């Protein structure tokens, strides 16, 4: 038999242990939600990479800089219209148009050129965009406030920023809409056909050049949306803004399987979750990017086509 004092001490100990475990669980849930939100942003950028490669067989390394272009356009139009949603719509449309112009001027003349020539051109376009941003806006970091006082949601010990939930929900809606567009629209089915066999698609009457142009427009539209959600968390803009998110999104596309839309989504979400969880472990935080790229190398060693990529036989 135990005394009343011993019993009460035992109850207090059990209660403290329960709430400690509950706090750890809530922290895990919060980190997971933040990871899914960040992963959704990476996935939207990765979709631009994977769609362009799947259809045009082109690695557009200037795609990350569309995020930077979108960031500066948001900076300009938020100041003009003083409304974040209207600024986003204008920016997304202008980025889509910019993607079309970029494809027409830089990539269409190289349609039959060697992959190396196209790759060098893409790198050149990337540096050109960064240099133009420095000339127009300078090298100093700009700050843009998209929404004010969005606040947080408290669920017990769980604290979630409203901007995180907006980003997560919007990414889910955008990716679901893109999936439905690809599967059920006439243009989407034509995009699938071109990605499978460009020659046969031309014989079937599909305008391949138009499909490639539309793909660039969609990819640039997604990059503009990604820049909006990225700036919700980090409202700082500079000429190299798109470099690291672009590299990570490309990594996500390769992990998922370049050319695979579900693979780009899965790769982006995986990177976002890894990044958030490593940020919670102090001794791993400095090595976050090394861990991400290490996972890329590991996956490519085990499965060179990516998690959801298809093995293709090259005809000789």
Give the key terms.
two-stranded antiparallel sheet; mainly alpha; 316 residues; single chain; two-stranded antiparallel ribbon; 4 strands
Shape: globular
Discrete helix count: 11
Please summarize the sheet with the most strands: 2 strands, antiparallel
Mean pLDDT: 83
In what order do the strands lie side by side in the largest sheet? 1-4
- In N-to-C order, the SSE pattern is HHHHEEEHHHHEHHH
Separation of the first and last Cα atoms: 85 Å
Which band does the percent of strand residues land in? under 5%
Q: Determine the fraction of residues in helical runs and give it as a percent range.
A: over 70%
Radius of gyration: 23 Å
Secondary structure: number of strands: 4
Please provide a written account of the structure:
There is one protein chain. With 316 residues, the protein is mainly alpha-helical. It has a domain at 30-242. It is 74% helix and 4% strand. The protein has helices at residues 4-56, 63-81, 84-107, 115-137, 162-184, 186-196, 198-203, 208-233, 243-256, 261-280, 288-302; strands at residues 142-143, 152-155, 158-161, 236-237. A hairpin with a 2-residue loop joins strand 2 (152-155) and strand 3. The longest helix has 53 residues, at 4-56. Residues 4-8 and 10-20 have low confidence and may be disordered.
